[in-house]
Amino acid sequence: MGSYIKSLFHRDYDTVKAVHDISFEIKQGEFVGFVGPNGAGKTTTLKMLSGILFPTSGEVTVAGHVPWQREPQFQRKFSLVMGQKNQMWWDLPVIESFQFNKTIYEIPDATFKAQKEMLCELLDIGHLINNPVRKLSLGERMKCELATALLHKPEILFLDEPTIGLDVISQKRIRDFLAEYNKEQGATIILTSHYMEDIRRLCDRVMIIDHGKLIYDGTYDKLIEKYADTKMIEVGFHEGVSEADLKKVAHVISYNHASAKLSVQRKDITKATTELLKLPIEDISIQEESMEEIVREIFSK
Amino acid sequence: MHTFSVFKKLCAMNLKQLLVYRANFFISVILMGAWVGAYVILIEVIFFHIDSLAGWSKGETLLILSFYYLLQNLSDLFFKDNIESFDDTVIHGELDFLIVKPAPTRMLAFFWRIRWDQVGSVIITLFLFTYAFQNLAQPLSPGYFLIGLSMVLVSFILYFSLLTMIASSTFWIGRNNSLRTIVFSITQLSRYPRQIYGKIFGLIFSSFIPMALLATIPAETALAQPIGILIAFFIGITILFSALSQWVWLRGLKRYSSAN
User: Fold this and answer.
1) Angle formed by the axes of helices B177-187 and B142-168, to 10°?
2) Closest C-alpha among B244, B62, B38 to residue B158
3) Is residue B260 part of a domain?
């Protein structure tokens, strides 16, 4: 309590650089994923790219525009969707938010009609657009948010955690839609997500940010090559195998009498598999480390 | 043209919202009726003891009160709610989606919620105008009354500029509800004739914080009083405050830090 009273008269300030010394270029039509822990600077970067934030220094050009000059010609070229924030009119049917964006973005009638039909079909929301936004489930609302944001056919789509809080099926639907939209419309999509599955399935390119700095920029495959020096083997047994036997072959992540999960150095995978096949094994599968595991590994170094 | 289309659309969207919650409309009519009624009783009590207030008769004072309420009704209808919640809008990062839209952010921010339920209050104010007309010694010229009404538009722009300038301070100081409350309190000054404030306070409330002019100028114009220079001054400071308010807004917007 004392410190609060003291802070009325005297405060010490620390300057935290949310984003520092980041440089990159994104080609038209690329699908890029921003990955990083909470507070890494992903959302700040998106907000600078979309002109919400005014950086203290540096240069940014998006589609030939400086974002924070907030020119209407630029604003018509992109859309921003945030999984944690709703931008539709809460009490009104979804179609009203569509109509509102039609006016704001000056979408011609024919384009609006065609785009609305296409989005309703792709997202399967035709039966929802006459319902008030507040009556929709989280998954339905996110699909409608996406449709609202895409009515003006933006060239660039900034997505901040679009699948947050959604169940697995809704996540997959959103993912499938984004993949198709990127492919069909050639839109550039920049995505932040905590779900590595989003990044793995969707993004041609992954950018890992930590403490406001870019620590990896490349393809998903190269990320695996560079940081995932182990693979995961899952084995099922038709008769008992002791944990000690497995430990002779690989590092045991989890074990029970019927199955086990092992981690093996990439270079030792053939040797380990050969050894395992000598045991009473019913089935075996070899997988790459999960994206979560790789990122955790990067940040722990 | 596009700005006007967006404004029209905001009006339409808000009207549809009102129809969802129509009880608000009836509540606002009752509350406004009680509020105006209380002030009319106050004026009646004052004029029971005196014949004029700083040279203004009862009917003329009621006319100032009518213009004051008309201005209040218009601000309640169009922007007051948005101004009252503006610090929350900024602190919670809700300005994000308005900034990225191809329409003037200031208009979207301050006209986002239009309170059509306040139309009921305008109806009460029209009754107040009728009561004021009945108490005037001489009937008003319709032409001058219309000019008086057009002066309310100038007052509206001036009042909007002053309030949005104060609201913009939230970009620097965060929560600004204390400052906002003071400004809303000072607004009360405009319900009385500007002449009651004397020289020093009259100068302050006519130029630096020009609240004393907001209702008096429309009333004096409607009463065909010779205040040509004062009208020119009133329009001049409205342009000045409007430009200043826009400048403060743009400076503030550069400091916007959003929220996660």
Assistant:
1) 160
2) B244
3) no
Q: Tell me the sheet residues that pair with A157.
A: A79, A189
Of the ranges A39-48, A189-198, B59-68, which is most confident? Answer: B59-68
Q: Is B36 helix (H, G, I), strand (E, B) or coil?
A: helix
Any B CB within 8 A of A80 CB: yes
Å between B195 CA and nearest CA of chain A: 41
Task: Please say if the pLDDT value at position A8 is more than 90.
Answer: no
Backbone angle region of B74, left / alpha / beta, with phi > 0 → left and psi within -120 to 50 → alpha:
alpha
B67 in a domain, yes or no? yes
Q: CA-to-CA distance for B155 and B68, rounded, in angstroms?
A: 10
Alpha carbons within 13 A on the beta-carbon side of A20? 10
B68 neighbors B155 (Cβ within 8 angstroms): no
DSSP, res B207: I
Q: Any CB–CB contact under 8 A between B3 and chain A?
A: no
Judged by CB atoms closer than 8 Å, whether chains meet at B17 and A99 is answered as no
Q: Does A103 touch chain B (CB under 8 A)?
A: yes
Residue with tokens 């609305």: A116
Q: What pLDDT is recorded for position A217?
A: 92
Report pLDDT for A291: 65
B227 assigned to some structural domain = yes
Q: Which of B249, B70, B88, B253 is nearest to B164 (CA)?
A: B249
Place of tokens 């700083």: B54
d(CA A221, CA B100) in angstroms, rounded, equals 34
B220 is a domain residue:
yes
Residues of chain B with Cβ-Cβ distance to A85 below 8 Å are 93-94, 96-97
CB of B103 within 8 Å of any CB in chain A? yes
Number of folded domains that form chain B: 1
Q: Mean pLDDT, to the nearest integer, of A4-18?
A: 75
pTM of the model: 0.83
Q: What is the pLDDT of residues B86-112, one digit of tens each?
A: 999 999 999 999 999 999 999 999 999
Domains of chain A with bracketed CATH: 31-225 (3.40.50.300), 229-300 (3.30.2130.10)
Residue B172: half-sphere exposure toward Cβ, Cα within 13 Å: 11
Q: d(Cα A93, Cα A275) in Å, to the nearest integer? A: 62
Distance between CA atoms of B150 and B5, rounded to whole angstroms? Answer: 23
How far is A43 from A157, CA to CA, in rounded Å?
14
Average pLDDT over residues B232-250: 96
Structural domain span for residue B189? 2-255
Beta-strand relationship, A78-82 and A156-160: parallel
CA distance A101 to A119: 14
Residue A227 structure tokens: 């940081």
Of B13, B17, B99, the CB nearest to A52: B99
CB contact under 8 A, B17 and A92: yes
